[in-house]
User: What shape does this take?
Amino acid sequence: MEASGLRGMKPDELDSKLNELVQTYFNLRFQHRTGQLENPKRIGQVRRDIARVKTIKKEQALQTR
Assistant: This one.
């Protein structure tokens, strides 16, 4: 996921993307604990994507001030 693509999104789109990523992260953690996860690196990627979305949301909130 690229930050430039996220910057073009509206705040409500970012909220839905964040909710989707958090749900994905939960599912990956669950799969990891049960031994069903094939690619453990995906957990780190999703965590970074969550942080990226939160950063973009914060930047947009500061711009509107």
The chain has a mean pLDDT of 95. Residues 11-63 form a domain with the Helix Hairpins fold (CATH 1.10.287). The CA atoms of residues 1 and 49 lie 7 Å apart. DSSP finds three helices and no strands in the chain.
